[in-house]
Amino acid sequence: MLRESLSDGTVTIRRFDLNDLERDLEAKDEEQIKWLWGAEDREKWVAMSSDQRRAHARATIMMYRDTFGPGPKWSFAVDADDESYVAYVDCDLANQHVPHGQANVAYSSHPAFRGSGYVSRAVRLVFRYLEENTEATEAHINVAADNEPSLRVARAVGAEAANQWVDEQGNSMIRFVYRLR
Ligand SMILES: CC(C)(COP(=O)(O)OP(=O)(O)OC[C@H]1O[C@@H](n2cnc3c(N)ncnc32)[C@H](O)[C@@H]1OP(=O)(O)O)[C@@H](O)C(=O)NCCC(=O)NCCS
After folding, report:
1. What secondary structure, in 3-state letters, does the chain show?
2. Would residue 90 count as lying in a domain?
């Protein structure tokens, strides 16, 4: 039976639920959209009314909640101290930029909680989650070479820069690899 949450005493990663909707809408700022979204999703989001945005975010949270199980992807809400959903983190064993069966790890923080150390704690918990629940031996974090805050997370969790590559949009990317178990 898969665990639905994991905690280090300060930060907890857990399965999503619909109470996360308001915070999710608040957290979608320029930074998140710039670094984490593909060009197509960005254009669609810009064209949506606020009701459409809410319906879209709600459907995405339901998808995170309902696909949490056998994998290959787990999306977690991150709680910290007394605050709910301060960040998002996921791991995906079927990501096109990572060898099949190895994990791609991605993350984003609610703007009000950036710089609190919550994301690096959450990523360390995801590593533990992968070790306890999957056969993956590597976690990959692919970061745009000029995304300084994200480079800090990758370095803080002890992942090592492995190679540089160029994504479909022409962005220069650095692959960080963390050896699991
Ligand atoms: C990238 C992002 C998630 C980083 O979030 P964050 O809140 O800064 O992350 P953390 O606070 O956990 O910081 C990570 C490390 O950098 C340190 N740090 C954070 N801000 C710092 C600063 N201004 N100066 C020096 N160190 C800093 C933290 O202490 C932590 O190290 P530690 O674990 O040793 O304490 C956030 O900027 C974000 O949401 N960006 C938009 C989405 C995005 O780019 N996602 C990544 C795509 S690859």
Report:
1. CCCCEEECCCEEEECCCHHHHHHHHHHCCHHHHHHHCCHHHHHHHHHCCHHHHHHHHHHHHHHHHHCCCCCCEEEEEEEECCEEEEEEEEEECCCCCCCCCCEEEEEEECHHHCCCCHHHHHHHHHHHHHHHHCCCCEEEEEEECCCHHHHHHHHHCCCEEEEEEECCCCCEEEEEEEECC
2. yes
